[in-house]
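re: that chain from earlier
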Amino acid sequence: MKETMTRYDLTGRTVVITGATGGLGSALALALRRRGANLALFDLDLAAATAQAARLGDDAVAKGFHADVRDMAGLEDSMAQAAKHFDGVDVVIANAGIDTVGPMATLNPAAFERVIDVNLTGVWRTFRAALPHVQEHCGYLLAISSMAAFAHSPLQASYTASKAGTWAMCDSIRLELRHLGVGVGSAHPTFFRTPLMDDVVADPAGRELWGGNDKGLWKMVPLETVVAGIVSGIERRAEQIIVPKRLTFAAKAPGVFRPLIERIGFRPNTIQRAIELASPAGWHDRHAVRRHQSNVESAADLSVPAPQVL
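^ sequence. v structure.
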């Protein structure tokens, strides 16, 4: 469905959010509830999602569900439960995501594979599980991608590949679903403060690459700016949401601007220092590794990052 300027009223519509208890998920849930939307909050941590729902209202307007975007059958079951509880699903936001910071030469291969599985394949699974329900309401599917889909950082091959892949995947799926009246969009915010970004800023390799993200080309924008942009995009059933809007031209012409961004943003000596600082696990801090570790893996195995929401 083509993007339209007619406002898609969210009042009374049901919105599913994966990774709902993370920084962006929580902020989106609050903003959408204020728009009158009902919320199905999907998260690995059911207790946290349930507590989040209770803060937003009674279970007629907000309810938590367990969901792991690596588990197709589980996602299908949770979508069916949400659709039954709210009498349908209108909008789905595929928001769950993780990251690592490390060069190909030393990064644990399992860390790379897990980022792709969560950030890219997890979006596909989420959309696939949601489609039968969203189709009934001619609804809207939104994937949270990133400006990393267009500007490809060193030491983040898994992340940039997953976000660029998500962008391309949304374009493909949009064409498949257009005749059904289902809209598909991808959101591309620049850096903003989340628990995931706290890990990036705290990591020595991350600080070397982006300088703490407090100034210059990689400066973070307020979370409120990102949320407002995404909510506005949902209300337009936008095909692409760029936050902040001043980066739209750069996002539309990645082939033109990529060499300049790489030359200005990532100087050879900076990349080399970051490589020397990077950990094979993707993070230096044991607590960061643990946050990204699967809840089904041994707590003693700190080598592989696992799902952490944005």
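The two ends are 27 Å apart (CA to CA).
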